[in-house]
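User: Here's a chain of 624 residues. Predict its fold as tokens.
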Amino acid sequence: MKNFLTIVCCLLASFLIEHANCFYVPGVAPVEFMAGERVEIKGVKMTSAKTQLPYEYYSLPFCKPDVIEYKTENLGEVLRGDRIVNTPYIVEMKTEKPCSVLCESKFEKDGALKLIERIKEYYSVHLLADNLPSATHLTMDDEEIVEHGYKLGIHLADDSVFINNHLIIKMKYNENTEDSSYRVVGFEVIPVSVARASIIQTDSEGNENICTISKERGKEKITPETTSILWTYEVKWEQSDIRWASRWDSYLTMGDVQIHWFSIVNSIVVVLFLAGVLTMIIVRTLRRDIAQYNREDDDLEDALEETGWKLVHGDVFRPPRRIMLLVSLFGAGVQLFGMSIITIIVAMLGMLSPSSRGSLLNASFALYVLMGVFGGFFGGRLYKSLKGQLWKRAAIQTALLYPGVCSSIAFILNFFIWGKHSSGALPFSTMILILALWFGVSLPLVVIGFYFGYRKHAYENPVRTNQIPRQVPEQQWYKGTFASVMMAGVLPFGAVFIELFFIFTAIWENQFYYLFGFLFLVFIILIIACSQIAIVMVYFQLCTEDYHWWWRSFIVSGGSAVYVFLYSLFYFHTQLSITAFVPTILYFGYTIIIVITFWILTGSIGFFASYKFVRMIYAQVKID
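Assistant: Prediction complete.
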């Protein structure tokens, strides 16, 4: 079996090394432009934090080139709703362009209504230049803020709507003096609404229409009666000292870094508190219990009366109900754990930069599939330890349960997205690809891992299980499952909730998240906190002579998922302005997937720690 795991690890390592060149490491592959060489401007999508529904660039009547060419997207880009396409903007390296007419687009009344609706929903348009996303620089409270994309239009309080039909494209470059080549290091778009009457077209120069904008310009108002829009743009170039490898820094800024350090310190305090409780239990109480239990004198009965965890030694390893379901969840948790830790480490090393679009989702999908071997192996060995007999059925359930739940929710949500004609809807070909990965790769890997895990020796329990189950004394209400979940979930959630805010912001407000160093520290702290709280709760449960700890340890250690859901409600009402039905359904649908994932991950961590703890303490006592 060791040889098998060694082979799997080698294959995984070779996969990562082979695909390392696909990941972007800042400063490795700059594109060199000569003076006058065209820098292609591409459209990506339109997004809104109010609707959570992305739309492709040409879903609105923008100017189109003679031939529309869509870039082939990877799985991560498709899941993000990106539909990268060429545009007619002509931008040439170090060549400034005065006001130029791009085109005059004509449309029906439906087109005007769609424009008005998108502007009222605060949609932003996202463009790309040399794989660098467009940005708008805003100043708020004497602090410069970089906003991704540019606003489609302006919606005033009197319900009037204006379109930003003129773009000032500001490009930044630095020069390579060795070969007189240039690199793009900045891409800023300043959107302006200019009334048609303020645009004065002049004689053509070559194939371009030059224009001037009067100083007393008005705004281009959009009404249901509008049937055409004149689109214009100008290009400005500015030499910059920004290094090419640092050109993403302004996009990846996550606010005050001190907040993240405060999050780390807060998490460490939580872990130290739990460590203190554990130390008191293990060093003082548990050591005293073991010493008393191992005494062979007349005070043994008094010791047994004082604490009760030894009294259930004949039942503590009795297999729980629904062992197949428990094993399936634990196997999925192992997969999620392996995927999470490796993805965070690889991203922390800079190999999953946002400039490699979709790479984070691609890596997560690939790693989850590959981790099926380990999920199946640990699930199979646990299933054998719990005296399960139907290992084939258990293996298939392990491979299908968690992905099946998530896929079912996502499939239902996809119908709502399709109904809105959003680019966030998964194409049929992508669904086939995901199903092929699931049933063609993930399922066989889980079954193979389960087979080898089931063949391996079961975990050896230090004590024998009695044939007749012991009756569990009546428990106080505050020792029940619900109360335990609510108490145990607070501390792990308290260790991660500050970082959770930035992750939610990245997901729901179209921001970049790239502080994976902080995320790695928080994840390690979460592992420790879940393990500690699970051990504490299981110890207290066994002391009350309740030996049904298997499911309780999983559910209780995953209790922080309840607080993640409650926090998502708080975030929805305080940070987002979602009011429509479909965006609300999408938000809570995806939130349920996040909560289920978090529950399985943290529950598996706590379950594994509890199992090790219970085996350890019962191995220390003498059983007649």
